[in-house]
Amino acid sequence: MISYIKGQLTTLEEGSITIEVSGIGYEILCANPFHFETQMNKEVKVHTYHYIREDNQSLYGFRKKEDKQLFGQLLNVSGIGPKGALAILGTVSVPEFVSAIEQEDEKYLTKFPGVGKKTARQMILDLKGKLIVWLPDEQNEETLFYQEDLTSREKRELIDDAIEALKALGYTEKEVKMVRTQLEKSKQGTVDDYVRQGLQMLMKS
């Protein structure tokens, strides 16, 4: 298994990044590739999950080790594949997801792409009690707190990543400043959602 890859980040695309190590480029699928935007052409370390099937071998990459570990746990749930697991990790923090599992909040879990009531119930049955190590200490002992919407801090971080992606596409600081104001008023979404919204705004201006 390939536990992690450390090398130069040479390519960033929608859905993946490429890291060069000793002349070999490793394509790594990621939930939010633009999280690595500020590290272009620099040395990075990415935690990887080597997914192997008879007809497919893919590398999935994560900034944090716990994200990789949760990805592996999700793949053990019937009805969840790599694409679905990556979509979940791209829209929620690990503690927030674990809180939902421990609270058995099916309504929250069905908000993820491709997750219906049956799959949400299966996730709860398979994962409850196995992930609490990733909860803050106070949440292990008291009522588990989480919000159905992203917190202001988390949303701001996602918008920051989207703004950096727009700059990488050639837009100026002045142009993206207007976009940021509008995105902050929009509903929650992923980095890719904010990038698409930002592009639409910029093309109309």
UniProtKB/TrEMBL annotation:
The keyword Ligase does not apply. The keyword Ribosomal protein does not apply. Residues 72-91, 107-126 form the Helix-hairpin-helix DNA-binding motif class domain. One of its GO terms (molecular function) is DNA helicase activity. InterPro entries: DNA_helicase_Holl-junc_RuvA_I, Hlx-hairpin-Hlx_DNA-bd_motif, NA-bd_OB-fold, RuvA, RuvA_2-like, RuvA_C, RuvA_C_sf. Keywords: Cytoplasm, DNA damage, DNA recombination, DNA repair, DNA-binding, Hydrolase. Gene3D superfamilies: 5' to 3' exonuclease, C-terminal subdomain, DNA helicase RuvA subunit, C-terminal domain, Nucleic acid-binding proteins. The RuvA-RuvB-RuvC complex processes Holliday junction (HJ) DNA during genetic recombination and DNA repair, while the RuvA-RuvB complex plays an important role in the rescue of blocked DNA replication forks via replication fork reversal (RFR). RuvA specifically binds to HJ cruciform DNA, conferring on it an open structure. The RuvB hexamer acts as an ATP-dependent pump, pulling dsDNA into and through the RuvAB complex. HJ branch migration allows RuvC to scan DNA until it finds its consensus sequence, where it cleaves and resolves the cruciform DNA. HAMAP family: DNA_HJ_migration_RuvA (MF_00031). This is Holliday junction branch migration complex subunit RuvA. The lineage of its organism: Bacteria, Bacillati, Bacillota, Bacilli, Bacillales. The gene is ruvA.
